[in-house]
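Worked example

This section walks through a single chain of length 161. The input is the sequence exactly as stored; nothing has been trimmed or padded.
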Amino acid sequence: MTTAQKIHVQIGEVKIGRPGDILTAILGSCIGLGFLYPARGIFGLAHCLLSDSGAVSDKIGGRHVDQAVRSLVSLMEIGPPDHKHIKAIVIGGANMTMPPDTDPRRLVGTTNSGSAYRAVRKLGLRNIHEDTGGVLGRQVTIDCTTGEFDVVQIPRLGGRA
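Given that input, the structure is written out below as tokens.
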């Protein structure tokens, strides 16, 4: 019996996995951006802290959503003919503090989510699973053997949502 290798994707990281790997990240206002390409047996997950970097670079990184998208495409060797086979998932973007006097559209979680949606659509990916917003953190797990993913909400301390 083979044990799967769990790969924790930390803030600002982009990691890829193949069958036998499990990609996972714990998210609050950060965005977990996953690209699933089961036909080729390759999966990617980025843990994005911020929305747009404002700069185009070939550097591999996941700190910003726009850089993470370029990094996933590069690491997974995805070209335009592959786009119709990829399932993109956008997870996280919670507003963890939810200040009562702030317009929710201006909070970092909301900004990150919007940036991720735009980046995925700009790339031309059609199959998007979204689980964003609210005030609860989430854990995303991608099983690179089966191609399935799971999102679990993390309860707040004291049990209040």
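What to look for: The first strand starts at residue 5 and ends at 8.
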